[in-house]
Amino acid sequence: MLKKLSGVTLAMAVTIGLTACGGSETSGSGSLGEQLDYEIVGIDPGSGLMNATLNNVLPGYGLDEKWKVIEGSDTAMTAELTKAIKNEDPIIVTGWVPHWIFNEFDLKMLEDPKELYGGEEYIHTLVRHGLQDDLPEAYKFLDQFEWGPEEMQDVMVKIQSGKSEQEAAEEWVAENADLVNSWTEGVKPGNGEEISMTYAAWADSIASNNVVKYVLEKKLEYSVNLIQVEPGAMWAGVSDGSVDAMIGAALPTTHAAYYKKFEGDFVDLGPNFTGLKNGLVVPAYMDIDSIEDLQDL
User: Fold this and answer.
1) Average pLDDT over residues 145-168
2) Whether the predicted pLDDT of 8 surpasses 70
3) DSSP string, 40-88
4) Which residues contact 44 (CB under 8 A, 6 or more apart)?
5) Which range is the signal sequence, renumbered to this chain (predicted)?
6) Pairing state between β 68-71 and 194-199
């Protein structure tokens, strides 16, 4: 079930009704906002994207009096988007790049002239204190792990097309041997040592964690325990030492509150990914280009 929230939202998926989109008429009458009942479909409650939308974007553009946010998940958001596009209905979703939806559909991210989503972001690798001493070779591999939007999106598309997460990782690793070798260069095998990693149920995080798991297990002989949790628990686990690492810290904006809360309790190995961008996403057939346009709907 999707849950309605009032006020500002972070990154979200919103279904919007327009009187004309790409030459096809949409059902309903009245303004776009009225057709949508001023509802925005979001993702996981408490995620950085939702927090940014609710606390920065909606109030910053004067939208918090009318627009409501629908609380859900990445899976629920993509299901709503898929359904709307199939029927050529208007919809606005909170989304981010990279994501498989940009390969699957013709989409555009609404302009954010006030830059309230914070512009381009980076995904960092964080590890617990003491990991370098306890598992120095795994630490070295995690420190060398780095890739880009095209590589990550390729894995996401493979998973979306029906491959299992590890099948997609295996295929991608075979196709990108040079890049993978740069991660494992100089790293000695783990000989069955265990390493635990937390991740959130987002398409990008699922892709990256499964690739890292595959390389650690099949190339470096580690035993990897992937633990799916909410974003806050992901940070807390590394900070209190109950898990070894996470490779999904979105900075400097999306996870800024978590970084501030736990600063000093983890080791930041720096970015493993450059090019993350959050915002409101709509089908290309919709006659709307900027978040500011929602003020008049």
Assistant:
1) 94
2) no
3) EEE-STT-HHHHHIIIIIHHHTT-TTT-EEEE--HHHHHHHHHHHHHTT
4) 50, 71, 72, 73, 74, 200, 201, 202, 230, 231
5) 1-20
6) unpaired
Q: What is the pLDDT of residues 208-254, one digit of tens each?
A: 999 999 999 999 999 999 999 988 999 999 999 999 999 999 999 88
What confidence category does residue 172 fall into, taking pLDDT thresholds of 50, 70 and 90?
very high
Q: Reduced to 3 states, what is the DSSP secondary structure of residue 248?
A: strand
Q: Looking at the predicted structure, is the pLDDT value of residue 27 above 60?
A: no
Q: What is the Cα–Cα distance from 234 to 217, expressed in whole angstroms?
A: 21
> CA–CA separation, 111 vs 75, rounded Å?
24
Residues 101 and 85 sit within 8 Å (Cβ to Cβ)? no
Q: CA nearest 33: which of 45, 17, 22?
A: 17
What Cα–Cα distance (Å) separates residue 152 from each residue in 10, 121, 126, 180? 23, 15, 19, 13
Buried b (16+ CB within 10 A) or exposed e, 155-173: bbbbbbeebebeebbbebb
47 contacts 76 by C-beta, under 8 angstroms: no
Domains of the chain (ranges, CATH numbers):
3-119+278-296 (3.40.190.100), 121-275 (3.10.105.10)
Q: What is the pLDDT of residue 82?
A: 94
